[in-house]
Amino acid sequence: MSGTENSMQELFARAASLLLGNDVDAAGDHDARLILQALEYAGESSNGIDSQLANRAHLLIAASRFARVFELASPDAPGLISFGAQFDPALADPLHDGSPMVGVSGVGLTLREAFQGCIGEGIEYLSQLQTGTDLLLEPGVDDWAGKLGPKALELVAALSERRMQPERALSWCRVTKLTDGGEVWLPADICLRRPPAQREFAPPFPLSIGSAAGPSRDAAALHGLLELIERDAASLWWRGGQLPRSLPPQPEAGIVAANLLQKLRHGVSTPRRTWLLDITTDIGVPCIAAVSCRADGSGFAFGLAARPTLEAAVRSAIVEMCQLELADNVVATKRSERGDEALNRQDRIHLQRAAIDADQCRLLQPVEECAAHLPLHATDASAIFGLIVQRLEKLGYDTFCIDLTRQRFAVPVVRVIAPGLQLEPSEIVTGRLQDAIVRTGGGATYTGGIPLI
Question: How far apart are CA 171 and CA 154, in angstroms?
Answer without folding.
Answer: 17
